[in-house]
Write a structure and sequence with these properties.
The complex is a heterodimer of chains A (about 350) and B (about 375).
Chain A (H helix, E strand, L loop, with lengths): L1 H7 L10 H27 L4 H5 L8 E3 L1 E2 L8 E7 L5 E10 L2 E6 L2 E9 L4 E2 L1 E3 L4 H9 L2 H32 L5 H11 L4 H14 L7 H4 L6 H12 L3 H9 L4 H12 L1 H17 L2 H6 L8 H7 L8 H33 L3
Antiparallel strand pairs in A: 1-8, 2-3, 3-4, 3-7, 4-5, 5-6
Chain B lengths: L3 E10 L2 E11 L4 E5 L6 H9 L6 E6 L2 E2 L11 E3 L11 H11 L4 H14 L15 H13 L5 E5 L7 H18 L2 E6 L2 H7 L2 E6 L2 E6 L1 H6 L4 H6 L6 E7 L5 E3 L2 E2 L13 E6 L4 E3 L7 E10 L3 E8 L4 E7 L9 E6 L5 E3 L5 E2 L10
Parallel strand pairs in B: 3-8, 3-9, 6-7, 7-8
Antiparallel strand pairs in B: 1-2, 1-4, 4-5, 9-10, 11-12, 11-14, 12-13, 14-20, 15-19, 16-17, 16-19, 17-18, 20-21
Helix pairs in contact in B: 2-3, 2-4
Classes of the chains: A alpha+beta (about 350), B alpha+beta (about 375).
Membrane topology (chain B): Peripheral membrane protein
GO molecular function (chain B): ABC-type maltose transporter activity; ATP binding; ATP hydrolysis activity
Keywords (chain B): ATP-binding, Cell inner membrane, Cell membrane, Membrane, Nucleotide-binding, Transport
Chain lengths: ~350, ~375
């Protein structure tokens, strides 16, 4: 706690605040708003009702107009505060609106109606969380299945990526063989080919293998990423050769050296690759959209797209499910971020 | 425990020849030290024996079995690396147990062997620690422990003491000697430090430029260096190597004066030779008996011994070691005489030549 307190009150010198302190704190404050503002707004908005979302001017907090049930009226009526002619302010429920005149009723005495000009009254608001934004898609639209699909793709693909890439990186960093630099060049070369270019040929391959509409069609093509091979190889090059030779002297087989010596020592780089892979797989949109056409195999990202119709967009569901989509990656990041900083520093990747 | 045979070992890296035909046989239980300046190929030779380098030519035989093409993991040797190469993510115990696990030794047997080695090396209290939490000397002992738990055919040491400070180096050197006396394995030890070589070795192999210059017991190398390189390399401070000549009758001349009683022989007559004399074999004498007269440039008083660095005419540079404390100062002119029985003469090719010493006059 004292550490955090010290962090937030750190300053240049002792005594009065230097002007650079003001500038630093102002800059940091702006940066915090810029970075966390949109996320915070997204989360708050995801709890808004469709009506509140479309309100202008927009509000930050999820507020909704207060509604009351009044005896004699079947629907709940919206509540307004109205200044009366005698100077008092009363809360009245609106029965109907005709032109610029609203017909209002006091919830306490529902018999008498009052006519009020619409520009005089102001809506009574209260903070209200629309949890149905989350509950309905998760239950009604089978979002749990999409969440499951996304989790399966992300976890399995990341595991396969880690295993395959680390084996390739081990060979490319530890062994001397003919064509080694050519192989490395090939790996780096494929880094420069974006997915959009190879979309069609890869799609044809996947179709020929009968994988369309299977989650494996998403997992397999990207399992061996050149970025991962390159990142791990660069890290493994920093492992002292003596360790591998010592293991050879210790009668360890090459598989054992890989599993017991090189893998544990590459942990920071593996963590970085795992984080990258999780983010890539979780956020992947284009390729799953191409190969997953049946809705039961949709991943979260494609399912989100379904809320965005041609004629109307269900913003309240879209925002809520976007939060659901963001949460796992944010949690992964929170737990593994120390590996990212050390790992990226060590791999020399920027 | 095993003997080792090297036949005509060659190792080229592209056009660079690092080992140019090395023949050597090492007996079972012997402690052999490879010594030489950096770049002489001593570490490469050790790695060839270990199987970590392939050879360009020649054969390696262990216990009569040709292992030239056998990979390192199947040769049954253990190596202590200069960097120790301890697995940083494993505890001391796991470091020592790793090889045994790879060999498929049963768990209780592994435990017994690791604990025995740890006790021998005073590591019992540190078995649970990671190498990062150990001092340099402890890491060194773990590296040795990792080798001895395996009970290997041959121990290989690649400059194991070079990362230790001077005091620890001396202590560990003694421990190594004691260890060899205790477990008695065949050990091959690479160093550039001739003190380690002299103190540890049963036999020293002096390497230079990818070739063996001389193989022999430490004192044999010291007393009878076979060539100029070994003469200059073994001994500290190094042997004085003075340019000399042989006159028409076969007597040695130094700076134009004949050195009485030293006759390398008529077959060298007229040739330029090198006279070698160790610092402790130069003594002060009365002026009439002097072989040379030198002026003192620098005096190093170490208490038990004194080193004089002196120069004479015709670029004569001499290092002189005297016992005890000597009252000599900078600039003093001293007549010196060489101990006739301890002189070495090397011909133009650098080979040692026998001295034709005149019989000593009865003193």
């Amino acid at each position: 706690m004292t550490g955090i307190a010290r962090l937030f009150t750190a300053r240049r010198g002792v005594g009065r605040l230097h002007w650079t302190d003001w500038v630093s704190y102002a800059f940091l404050a702006v940066a915090v708003v810029l970075m966390f503002g949109p996320v915070l707004w997204l989360v708050l908005s995801s709890f808004k009702t469709p009506a509140a979302l479309l309100e202008f001017p927009p509000t930050l907090a999820p507020v909704a107009q207060k509604e009351v049930r009044v005896e004699g009226y079947p629907q709940p009526l919206p509540l307004f505060s109205v200044p009366m002619e005698d100077g008092t302010v009363r809360q009245l429920a609106q029965v109907r609106r005709v032109g610029i005149i609203a017909q209002m009723v006091d919830p306490a005495s529902p018999a008498a109606t009052v006519r009020v000009p619409v520009d005089k009254r102001t809506p009574v608001r209260e903070v209200a969380f629309a949890f149905e934004n989350y509950i309905e898609p998760l239950a009604k639209f089978d979002f749990l299945r999409f969440l499951g699909n996304s989790l399966f793709v992300t976890v399995v693909a990341t595991l396969i990526t880690l295993v395959i890439n680390s084996m390739a990186a081990y060979a490319l960093s530890v062994y001397e063989f003919k064509g080694k630099s050519l192989a490395m060049l090939g790996v780096i070369g494929t880094l420069m080919i974006p997915i959009t270019i190879i979309l069609v040929p890869v799609y044809l391959v996947v179709t020929e293998m009968g994988l369309v509409n299977s989650l494996w069609a998403v997992i397999l093509p990207g399992a061996a990423t050149p970025t991962g091979v390159f990142l791990l190889r660069q890290y493994m090059l920093t492992i002292p050769r003596d360790l591998i030779e010592a293991a050879r002297m210790d009668k360890a087989s090459e598989w054992r050296i890989y599993a017991r010596i090189v893998m544990p020592l590459s942990l920071p780089a593996l963590a970085v690759l795992a984080i990258f892979s999780i983010m890539w797989r979780w956020n992947d949109f284009l390729w799953p959209l191409a190969v997953l056409t049946k809705s039961e195999v949709h991943t979260l990202q494609i399912a989100l797209n379904a809320f965005q119709g041609e004629l109307q967009t269900q913003w309240h569901y879209l925002l809520a499910m976007t939060v659901v989509t963001l949460a796992p990656v944010a949690i992964v990041f929170a737990f593994l971020q120390r590996f990212i900083t050390t790992g990226i520093a060590n791999t020399g990747m920027k | 425990m095993a003997g080792l045979e090297l036949r005509a070992i060659r190792k080229d890296y592209g056009p660079v020849a690092v080992l140019k035909g090395v023949d050597l046989s090492i007996a079972d239980g012997e402690f052999v030290v490879f010594v030489g300046p950096s770049g002489c190929g001593k570490s490469t030779l050790l790695r060839v024996i270990a199987g970590l380098e392939t050879v360009t030519g020649g054969a390696v035989t262990i216990d009569g079995q040709d292992v030239t093409r056998v990979p390192a993991s199947d040769r049954g040797l253990a190596m202590v690396f200069q960097s120790y190469a301890l697995y940083p993510h494993m505890s001391v115990y796991d470091n020592m147990a790793f090889a045994l696990e790879n060999m498929g030794v049963a768990k209780p047997e592994i435990d017994a062997r690791v604990r025995r080695a740890a006790a021998m090396l005073r590591l019992t209290d540190y078995l649970a620690r990671k190498p990062g939490a150990l001092s340099g000397g402890q890491r060194q002992r773990v590296a040795i422990g990792r080798a001895i738990v395996r009970d290997p055919k041959i121990f290989l040491f690649d400059e194991p003491l070079s990362n230790l400070d001077a005091e620890l180096r001396v202590a560990t050197r003694k421990e190594l000697a004691a260890l060899h006396a205790e477990i008695g394995g065949t050990m091959i030890y690479v160093t550039h430090d001739q003190v380690e070589a002299m103190t540890l070795a049963d036999r020293i192999v002096v390497l230079n430029g990818g070739r063996i210059e001389q193989v022999g017991r430490p004192l044999d190398l010291y007393n009878e260096p076979a060539n100029l390189f070994v003469a200059g390399f073994i001994g500290s401070p190094r042997m004085n190597l003075l340019p000399a000549g042989v006159d028409a009758v076969g007597a040695l001349t130094l700076a134009g004066r004949a050195l009485a009683g030293v006759t390398p022989g008529a077959q060298l007559a007229g040739e330029a030779v090198t006279l070698g004399v160790r610092p402790e074999h130069v003594g002060l004498c009365a002026a009439p008996e002097a072989d040379a007269t030198v002026a003192v440039d620098l005096v190093e008083q170490l208490g038990g011994e004194t080193f004089l660095y002196a120069s004479g005419q015709a670029d004569l540079k001499l290092t002189i070691r005297l016992d005890g404390q000597v009252g000599v100062g900078r600039g003093d002119i001293l007549p010196v005489r060489f101990d006739r029985a301890r002189l070495h003469v090397f011909d133009a090719a650098g080979r040692a030549r026998p001295l034709g010493l005149a019989p000593r006059s009865p003193a």
